[in-house]
Every structure is written in C-alpha cells, then in structure tokens.
C-alpha cells in the first residue's frame, strides 16, 4: 500500500500567508511568502518527471494547501494546474485536484477555472454558528465572513464541485447545528449529495468535547445531510497515513519539501529540497521517516487492536521514539477507541 506506484499524491503550498488569523492555527503565517517563478517551473518539471518515469502511474492528485492557497490563485495555482492537466492528458494520466481553504476568496472566475481543470473538491471551514464563526474568522473586526463563506460554498456546489464543510468544535464553540443547517436549507437534492460535514475537535483546546461531537454528528444526519467524524472511516493496512507513502510529497512555496502537513513548515521539519531539474534532494530526516514502521515494534505486533489503530503514523514515531503508544499502553483507552468506532457504525 505504501509503495503503490499507480497513484501519486502531491501537496503544494503556494503561500504560508493567510487572510485570517484563527486562534488555534498551528502554522506560522509569513505575509511575504509567495512561490517564485523558478519554483513553479521546478514543480512542473517534477510533475513531468513523475509522469515520464513511473510506468505504472495511472493517477495524480494535487492538494492545494497553505496558508490560504487562493491568495496566490492567479500567479501560482493557475499556471501549475493548467500545464499539469495538459501534460497529464497528453500521457493518458488521470489528474484531479482539491483545495483546503477558508473559502472567503472564492469567486465565479475561480470556480469556472476549477470546473474546467479537474478540481473535484474543496474543504471549507465553519467555526460553529454565525456569531461564533465571525468572532474567530474575519479580516476586519465586525465583518460577517460567515454569510460570505456560506454563499461561496453554495456557488461551489452549483458548479458541480464537492464541498466538505469542516466544523471545528471546541469548548467555546456554540455549534447550534439547527442554525447552521438552516443556512443550507435551500440546497436542492443534487447539491446536498455533493456536500458533507466533517466534524473535528480543535485539538489545541484542553477541554475535550467528544460527546458533543457525537451529538452534532447524529443531528446533522437526522436532518438529511451527510456527516462524518474520524471514527467514520475504517482504519487498517489500506488506510495508512499519507506521510508514510513513498509517492507523496509536500512542496512548500520556497521549494522546501516535506511529508507531513500537520506540522509547521520550518527548516527544522524539512525533509528535502526541490532542485532545478525537477528532482528532490532528500535529507537524512526523510530516510529516517521512511525506514520507521510501527509494524516492526514489539509492543505493536502483540497489541490486541492492531491494525485498527493503523499502528500510528511515522511522524509520531519520529517525535516520540519507538517506546511509545498513542493510547499510553492503556488497554481501557484502546477499548474506548474501539467502542467509539463501533458506536459510529451502529448509529
């Protein structure tokens, strides 16, 4: 699974700048950050090399991440996506794309381009109901970003592009699911099928809200919308972490290369650099990661829930060492994890 050559996953950060400043964001936003023309050229060379050299390749997926990727849509996203689609089509390779964005800058012009260039989905965040969301996500104090983003979500759905609405839930969040769903009550049946709610606990919040997340999940489903949480998906050998896969690369705006998107894009975390010939020069951190496997660890090989927990990701192995368990070697915590997974399936 981790060495599957038929699929390549590329994550691109056009910038680490963002038009919002959400309190829980783990990234260091860099206002002046923008991908240079040289790095754009090198990325296109990188994609061409993948297509030319991987004879088993059938599909490439490009994730646009950041920062806020739409800040650099015209200067970075458009030229890369246009050329990449053109080259993939010539070689008979399926290319798709998706965005992780706050949705504030979405426009009809952007959506028209996306619909013509194999963009399949957007992940757009709401921080609870309108009043709470506007306290967290805004450019100017007192601005109603909630209504702007909801309008853009609807426009995206109308273009036939899927949207995952990420609901970030914390102890301070008043989710008020009824009012959120009321914002989308005018969607037709086809648009509803293209929209899902992803319910996520803000992990930086010390106060846990797991029970509230389940309540929200069931309420959304009860009202006829698609919704999921982490436990909605089956873990196992076929669903290992993306950072563990050989054919996965994260390219930052400055040409530095990473594997994991859940950590700051600092020099310390960098695992390589994109070269002018479209190759990646990896450093020792990358080889340390790719040589680590929890399946080699004795405490994992005898664990009663392996492989349901996926034996954790390589990032955690790097940071915590081999004498480590995400459930603190506590069997009751492991069983609680299993209980939640079963509970989600039952309801």
Task: Tell me what portion of residues adopts beta-strand conformation.
Answer: 15-25%
End-to-end C-alpha gap: 30 Å
Rg from alpha-carbon coordinates: 21 Å
**Which H/E pattern describes the elements?**
EHEHEHEHHEHHEHEEEEEHHHH
Low-confidence stretches: none
Shape: globular
Number of helices: 12
The helix/strand class is alpha/beta
Mean pLDDT: 89
Main sheet? 11 strands, mixed
Tell how many strands the DSSP assignment holds. 11
- What topology, given as strand order, has the largest sheet? 7-6-5-4-3-2-1-8-9-10-11
Helix content: 25-40%
Quickly describe the structure.
With 347 residues, this protein is of the alpha/beta class. The protein has helices at 37-53, 73-90, 108-116, 130-136, 145-158, 177-182, 189-193, 210-222, 284-290, 298-301, 314-320, 331-346, and strands at 7-12, 59-64, 94-101, 119-126, 162-169, 195-201, 226-228, 248-251, 256-258, 272-274, 280-282.
Which helices and strands appear, and what pairs or packs with what?
Layout lengths: L6 E6 L24 H17 L5 E6 L8 H18 L3 E8 L6 H9 L2 E8 L3 H7 L8 H14 L3 E8 L7 H6 L6 H5 L1 E7 L8 H13 L3 E3 L19 E4 L4 E3 L13 E3 L5 E3 L1 H7 L7 H4 L12 H7 L10 H16 L1
Parallel strand pairs: 1-2, 1-8, 2-3, 3-4, 4-5, 5-6, 6-7
Antiparallel strand pairs: 8-9, 9-10, 10-11
Helix pairs in contact: 1-2
């Amino acid at each position: 699974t981790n060495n599957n050559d038929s699929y390549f996953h590329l994550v691109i950060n056009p910038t680490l700048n963002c038009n919002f400043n959400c309190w829980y964001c783990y990234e260091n936003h860099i206002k002046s950050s923008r991908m240079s023309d040289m790095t754009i050229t090198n990325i296109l060379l990188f994609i061409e090399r993948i297509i030319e050299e991987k004879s088993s390749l059938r599909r490439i997926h490009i994730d646009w991440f950041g920062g806020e990727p739409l800040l650099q849509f015209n200067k970075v996203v458009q030229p890369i996506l246009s050329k990449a689609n053109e080259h993939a089509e010539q070689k008979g390779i399926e290319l798709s794309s998706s965005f992780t964005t706050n949705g504030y800058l979405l426009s009809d012009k952007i959506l028209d381009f996306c619909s013509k260039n194999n963009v399949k989905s957007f992940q757009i965040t709401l921080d609870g109901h309108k009043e709470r969301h506007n306290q967290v996500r805004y450019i100017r104090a007192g601005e109603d970003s909630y209504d702007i983003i909801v309008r853009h979500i609807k426009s995206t759905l109308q273009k036939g592009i899927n949207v995952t609405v990420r609901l970030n839930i914390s102890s301070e969040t008043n989710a008020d699911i009824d009012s959120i769903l009321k914002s989308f009550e005018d969607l037709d049946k086809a648009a509803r099928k293209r929209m899902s709610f992803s319910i996520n606990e803000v992990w930086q919040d010390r106060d846990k809200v797991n029970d509230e997340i389940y309540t929200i999940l069931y309420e959304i489903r009860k009202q006829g919308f698609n919704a999921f949480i982490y436990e909605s998906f089956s873990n196992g050998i076929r669903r290992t972490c993306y950072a563990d896969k050989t054919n996965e690369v994260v390219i930052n705006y400055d040409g530095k290369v990473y594997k994991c998107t859940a950590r700051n894009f600092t020099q310390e975390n960098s695992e390589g650099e994109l070269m002018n010939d479209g190759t990646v020069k990896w450093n020792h951190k990358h080889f340390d990661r790719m040589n680590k496997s929890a399946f080699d660890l004795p405490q994992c090989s005898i664990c009663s829930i392996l492989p349901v927990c996926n034996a954790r990701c390589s990032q955690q192995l790097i940071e915590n060492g081999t004498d480590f368990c995400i459930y603190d070697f506590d069997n009751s915590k492991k069983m609680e994890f299993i209980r939640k997974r079963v509970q989600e399936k039952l309801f």
